[in-house]
TrEMBL record:
It comes from the Bacteria. Keywords: Membrane, Sugar transport, Transmembrane, Transmembrane helix, Transport. The keyword Transmembrane applies. It comes from Vagococcus teuberi. The chain crosses the membrane at residues 31-49, 89-107, 119-137, 181-201, 213-232, 238-262, 274-291. It is a multi-pass membrane protein. This is Ribose transporter RbsU. Coiled coil: none annotated.
């Protein structure tokens, strides 16, 4: 029961994170500044509370690169929220992450070794694509809406490079996820500060001096809580990597539904039914990708 409760931590953290960030408001630069500062505060407390050792050498470099990857991708994800809302963007970015993680596992980690595994895995990828497409289906044809969805998909596809780096870089280190957490947070803050300075020069608005940026620290706590509980859940004496990953992917359901209910990202009755079916397909596919 304890393992299951911890495993559902990402459901709450990552499921509520995009909705809370959108609810607090501000531009993507405000959202990334606050989110990363909140994550850094959480990581520092965790570091000292557990007496963790700070990595060095290539372990440190890869951990920081991991954080840089996440923050870069998250900026693009926030931009997609402006185009189509979090309830539409989250299933798409989840689908991209599942697809890339699966392909990376096959190409680099030797996953899906048999032909049967590959066939089941290919089926899972098709279900992911179909599920994501269903979540953005619109009953009323609107050229402007279709254009925004296309732009959001392109933005999220580019952002997936960063999410891939966030997941893949720590796999090349010799340290645990707990030890990598603080350097990751440092990498995230580096991106946020650089991005805010670039925006300050271009738009004459400095996010580092705007109150909404610091309100976004709350959303950063939710992200950090999800990341921490996922690290614990994935340990072999808890849920293990496969089950922990599946449980973490349930966050897409909460992120999508809270975006609709809390943020007022309206859907018709038919659109809602198709969206739910799409989410079920994505979760089913996530299960398939880790059991083969």
């Amino acid at each position: 029961m304890t393992a299951l409760l911890i495993g559902l931590g990402p459901l709450l953290g990552w499921g509520l994170y995009p909705t809370i960030a959108s609810k607090i408001g501000g531009k993507p630069v405000n959202q990334i500044v606050g989110s990363t500062i909140g994550t850094l505060i959480f990581a520092i407390i965790l570091f000292f509370a557990n007496g963790l050792t700070f990595p060095s050498g290539m372990d440190l470099t890869l951990s920081i690169l991991s954080g840089i990857g996440w923050a870069s991708a998250q900026i693009l994800t926030f931009k997609s929220f402006e185009l189509v809302g979090s309830s539409r963007a989250m299933p798409i970015t989840t689908a991209f992450q599942l697809i890339v993680a699966s392909l990376w596992g096959v190409a680099h980690l030797g996953n899906w070794p048999t032909m049967t595994d590959k066939l089941i895995g290919a089926l899972a990828l098709v279900l992911i694509i179909l599920g994501a497409r269903m979540t953005v289906w619109s009953e009323k044809k609107d050229s402007a809406d279709a254009s925004n969805i296309k732009k959001a998909v392109i933005i999220l596809a580019i952002g997936e490079i960063g999410y891939w780096l966030y997941s893949a870089a720590p796999q090349e280190t010799s340290i645990t996820g707990m030890n990598a957490f603080l350097p990751q947070a440092i990498g995230m803050v580096i991106v946020a500060v650089v991005y805010s300075l670039v925006i300050a020069v271009k738009e004459k608005e400095n996010a580092l001096t705007q109150m909404v940026s610091y309100k976004q620290i709350i959303s950063g706590f939710f992200f950090a809580f999800a990341a921490l509980t996922y690290l614990i859940s994935a340990q072999t004496n808890m849920n293990g990597l496969a089950t922990g990953f599946i449980l973490s992917q349930t966050s897409v359901v909460l992120a999508t539904l809270t975006g609709i209910w809390v943020l007022g990202q309206k859907k018709t009755s038919k659109e809602m039914k198709i969206t739910i079916i799409g989410l079920v397909l994505i979760l089913l596919a996530a299960t398939l990708t880790v059991i083969v």
